[in-house]
Structure formats: C-alpha cells, structure tokens
Amino acid sequence: MWRSVPLYNIILDKIRKNNNNNIRDDDLFKEVKNSTNYEVSYDDFLKALMALEIRGYISVSLIKENVRMITYLGDRE
C-alpha cells in the first residue's frame, strides 16, 4: 500500500514536537501508529529510524536490551 506521507517524515514530525528532544522507541512507535491511517510494522519503523540515523537527523542509543533512546539532532542543511 502506498503511503501519502513517508514514514520517516511522520517520525521526524513526532520527534520535533517532543519538548525535550529525547523519546523512547516504544513511545514513539505508539505515537506513529496512532497518527497514521495505515498499518505500520515494527520492522518498517526500525528501518525508518536507521535511515534517519544514517542521514544524521537523529541519534539512536541502546539503554537496555530492546530499549532505545532516540535523540533529535536537528535538521541538516
């Protein structure tokens, strides 16, 4: 199914709206799932996070096993 808005744009929007620029991956996943009108798998979510990290928009650090902290680094110019 085609998405009208790319998943990574939705993720970036949710992270930007977060006040302290840090959010756990499970909280972000819940927010993304609730804001979309299509099914988002956790695998697709992790792939989008990896793409955003490679592009330099976010930093993902492992807190505990299977718990990640996502930090917004800012927009690249």
Quick one: CATH class?
Answer: Mainly Alpha
Residue fraction in strands: 15-25%
Fold-level CATH name: Arc Repressor Mutant, subunit A
Kindly report the average pLDDT value.
88
State the order of secondary-structure elements, H for helix, E for strand. HEHHEE
Low-confidence stretches: none
Write the layout of secondary structure elements.
Layout: H1 7-17, E1 22-24, H2 25-35, H3 42-55, E2 58-64, E3 67-72
Antiparallel strand pairs: 1-3, 2-3
Helix pairs in contact: 1-2, 1-3
For the structure shown, list the relevant keywords:
single chain, 77 residues, alpha+beta, Arc Repressor Mutant, subunit A, three-stranded antiparallel β-sheet, 3 helices, globular
Could you explain how this protein is built, in words?
The protein has 77 residues and is an alpha+beta fold. The protein has a single domain, classed as Orthogonal Bundle (Arc Repressor Mutant, subunit A), CATH 1.10.10. A hairpin with a 2-residue loop joins strand 2 and strand 3. Helix 1 crosses helix 2 and helix 1 crosses helix 3. The mean pLDDT is 88.
Q: Gist?
A:
The chain has 77 residues and is an alpha+beta fold.
